[in-house]
C-alpha cells in the first residue's frame, strides 16, 4: 500500500487518474497543517487530506484513511475510506447538487479523489463571523430528508434495505459515536479549566443527575437499536460548505444504520452552540446581535420544519402503499423525529462543550468571562432538553423554551 505525501501525490494522480490533466505549476497542500481555521475539514482528526490545484484553477481533494485517528491515536481500520466513497456515490445519485463530484475510488490504497468545494466556505467559521446563510435550512434539510428517505425501508425493497444496512454496518466507527457522544466524554474528568470550577461543578451536576443519566442511556439505546436509515453520522457545521445559494456536504465515513432523527439533532446541537456564542460574543451593535441570535433560533425551527416537509413530499411520491394508507403513520413519525432530534441534540451538544476539546463556536470569544457565560448558557439548554425532549408535541414549544433560555 502506498502512503501518500506531498512529494509523491502528483505521480500517484498521473498513474491512477490520467484524465486529470494538471497544468504546471501545481500546488499541493495538506489540509489541517498549521493553525486550525477555515481550511480545516472536520475529518482531519481521522485522515490525511490533500488539496491539489493547478495553474488553470482546477482543484481536487485527495483523501487517504489511516489506521488511527490522526490527533487522538485510536486505532481504526483504514478500509472505512472505501465505504465513504461508496456512500458518496449512492448519495450523489439521490442529491447530486449537495455531494462533491467523485473522480477516483482506490480501495487498495484507501484513497479517493473528489471535487474541491472550497470555493464555498465552511459554515462554522462563517457563522463565527456572523454570516447568514439564507438557503441553509432548506438545503440542509433537503439533503437529510432525501438521503434518509431513499435509504429507508419506506422506499427500498425490504431485502435490499437489509443488505444495505449490513454492508454499511461500520462497527468500528459506530463505537466512536456510541461511546464518544453518550459515554466517554460524559465520563471524563477533564473539563474546560479556563471556565473555572463553577462550570466544572455545573457540568458534573448534569452528568450525575440520576434522571438525566437515565435519559442519556435511553437515547443511547435508541441510537444503537433503531436502524431506520443510513445516516451521515457526523453532520456538523464543519462538514458543510456553503455560500448564499449553494451547499456541499463532506466527511461521510460515519455512515451506518440509525434513527432518522440523529443527523437532524447533530446539526441542531451545533446551531444551539452558535446561538449561545452569539449571545455573548462581540457585535457592532446590540441590534445586530439580537437579529443574529434570532436568525440562529429560527434556523433550528426551519431545519426541522423543512425536513418534515421534504420527507413527506418523498413519502407521498415514493413510499410503499402499505405505509401511505395507514392512518396516523406520518403524524406519529413526525412526532418521533421531533422529540428524538432534540434529545440527541442535548447529547451531542453537551458532549462537545463540557469537556476540554476545541470548540470553535466558543473559542472565537476571546474574553474568557463571556466565553464561560456562553458555555453555561449552552449547557443549561442541554439540561432543559434532557428533561423535556420526550414530552414535546410541537416545534413551537421547543423554540419557545430555547428563546426563554437565551433571550
Automatic annotation (TrEMBL):
Keywords noted in UniProt: ATP-binding, Kinase, Nucleotide-binding, Transferase
Record SUPFAM superfamilies: Protein kinase-like (PK-like)
Coiled coil (residue ranges): none
One Pfam family from the record: APH
A GO term for molecular function: kinase activity
Classification via InterPro entries: Aminoglycoside_PTrfase, Kinase-like_dom_sf
Domain of life: Bacteria
Transferase as UniProt keyword: yes
All copies of domain Aminoglycoside phosphotransferase, residue ranges: 43-275
Family from the record: Belongs to the methylthioribose kinase family.
The protein's name: Aminoglycoside phosphotransferase domain-containing protein
Lineage, top ranks: Bacteria, Bacillati, Bacillota, Clostridia, Lachnospirales
